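Protein data:
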Amino acid sequence: MKKLLIIVDYQYDFVNGSLGFEGAEKLIPVIKEKIENYLKENQDIIYTLDTHEEDYLSSTMEGKLLPVAHCLRCSKGWKVVDEVDYLDRAIKVFEKPTFPSLELANYLKDKEYDEVELCGLVSNICVLSNAVMVKSSLPNASIIVDAKATDSFNKDLHEKCLDILEGLHIQVINR
């Protein structure tokens, strides 16, 4: 079985930086264990990195609607949290200027994965939107989100997000 783990935006700004929230750091051991298991099984891992430029606040719709500078390219907040930084072992790393990655979806559309699992932050924003993109690219693959490997600053939206994922035939485990 060919499997893929996508680590979505597990960057310092979402854990303990400008958009960090209580509980985000608790995902570190869960995500680390997932990555190590996938690598041990010779399965693939991919990272997405929320990536913005210095003019984010003034030049993007997201910056106007979410006026918090975060994940500015090459800043400390843009970097993947050290404990889960296996970028050198990833088959691809996608820098994305907004919530989902069209580049990721286009990359996956001709791949033959049986199972794709997503983890990371933030559940109701980037994890959800990228899960939908993956489902669109690989409609016959089993798409999984581990509820213990994602979270949100808004617990109500997190739970609603998990419901929506299930409604889209994305398997939510460890709920």
